[in-house]
Amino acid sequence: MGERRTKPVAIGSVIIGGSNPVALQSMTNTDTRDVEATLRQVQELVEAGCDLVRVSVPDKEAVEAFGRLVRAAPCPLIADVHFDYRLAIGALRQGASKVRINPGNIGDWERVDAIIAAAKERDAAIRIGVNGGSLPKHILAKYGKPSAEALVAAGLEYLDRFLAADFDRLVFSFKSSSVPNTIQAYRLAASKLEWPLHVGVTEAGTKWRGTIHSCVGIGTLLAENIGDTIRVSLTSNPVEEVKVGLEILRALDLRASGISVTSCPTCARTPEDLIGLAERFEQMVSGMAGQARVAIMGCAVNGPGEAREADLGLALGPGKALLFVGGEIVETVPIEQALQRLYDEVVRFLNRRRE
Ligand code: SF4
């Protein structure tokens, strides 16, 4: 991966950019005014591995609720505001660590200046979300369409105005309609901006489509060392977004936490229901604290080799499984007990590591 380093920007207790790990964020989809339900979802997201949570603040009532959420939430909260600058100011006064605005839909620049003043008062950050649908007219006229160049040109113009107001706790994002455009816009932005980039493929779709589009878009950029915080957008429970985001980070060795379960693709040699077993085991260890590599392999041909590479593993045979710990076969277990035995060994392995 390349050497791109951005300016570090604090979002409450989480610092993004610089040499900090890529932060994972998601967004609640409850009614913000329902503080109890929203707080519950924030907690679920954090438990799933989310570092920062964004919450919509669509009206005055939501501003007040947002304050209560900030005081109870286990992570810094970001307020998502559209159109009404007073809501952004309200959310900042209620303790938002960052507000996400699109200067293109806030109206007169004096209003953006008022948001900047409120962010300064609170040492909060601002994400400038440049959106292809609301680019300044002169930029659209110059580029003809909301191309990657047009999006980045708008971002650079906004940047000048924020710097003129003596404010640089900034994060940028570029909302584009397709994965190739998104990749192009972020590559261009990364070559011109030293501020952290929030990377995501917006409106990616349902769980299946959205996961693939996000993996391609976000994964490509992260592999080029572009992106300081990511959000996977799915038409699904946001906890699923966090799971996908974590797996993207793990796939690129950008996050090592958790129990990583590898398994073979299965073939005619697979003697047992490996797919079911691997899925069940993944559920058993999801959310477990600590790090371990576990392999669940379908047979005794390639299985033992892979299982030996992992910290712990199973290689299945008809009605039984070989259990590996630290590369050694420690036991042959009946298939019905294999997952529980493996689980117990994972717990023992993690305890040994902690000692
Ligand atoms: S590990 Fe064995 S069962 Fe799994 S795909 Fe390879 S050969 Fe087939």
Can you offer a commentary on this structure?
The chain is α/β, with parallel strands linked by helices and 355 residues long. It folds into 2 domains: 9-251, TIM Barrel; 258-354, Sulfite Reductase Hemoprotein, domain 1 (2-Layer Sandwich), CATH 3.30.413.10. The protein contains 12 helices and 15 strands. Strands 8-7-6-5-4-3-10-9 form an 8-stranded parallel β-sheet. It has a 5-stranded mixed β-sheet with strand order 11-12-13-14-15, with helices on both faces. It has a two-stranded antiparallel ribbon with strand order 1-2. The chain is elongated and about 70 Å long. The two termini are 34 Å apart. The model has no long low-confidence stretch (mean pLDDT 93). Iron/sulfur cluster binds next to loops.
Task: Describe the structure concisely for a colleague.
The protein is an alpha/beta fold and 355 residues long.
Task: Name the shape in a single word.
Answer: elongated
The percent range for helix content is 40-55%
Could you name the ranges where pLDDT drops below 50 across 5 or more consecutive residues? none
Average pLDDT across residues? 93
**What is the CATH architecture assignment of the largest domain?**
Alpha-Beta Barrel
Series of H and E elements? EEEHEHEHEHEHHEHEHEHEHEHEEEH
| Overall tally of domains | 2
Name of the CATH first level of the largest domain: Alpha Beta
Structural class: alpha/beta
Which strand order does the major sheet show?
8-7-6-5-4-3-10-9
| Ligand species | iron/sulfur cluster
Q: From the alpha-carbon coordinates, what is the Rg to the nearest angstrom?
A: 23 Å
Q: CATH superfamily name of the largest domain?
A: Dihydropteroate synthase-like
Task: Quote the distance from N terminus to C terminus.
Answer: 34 Å
Care to count the β-strands?
Answer: 15
Number of helices: 12
Largest beta-sheet details: 8 strands, parallel
Report the portion of residues in β strands.
Answer: 15-25%
Here the CATH topology of the largest domain equals TIM Barrel
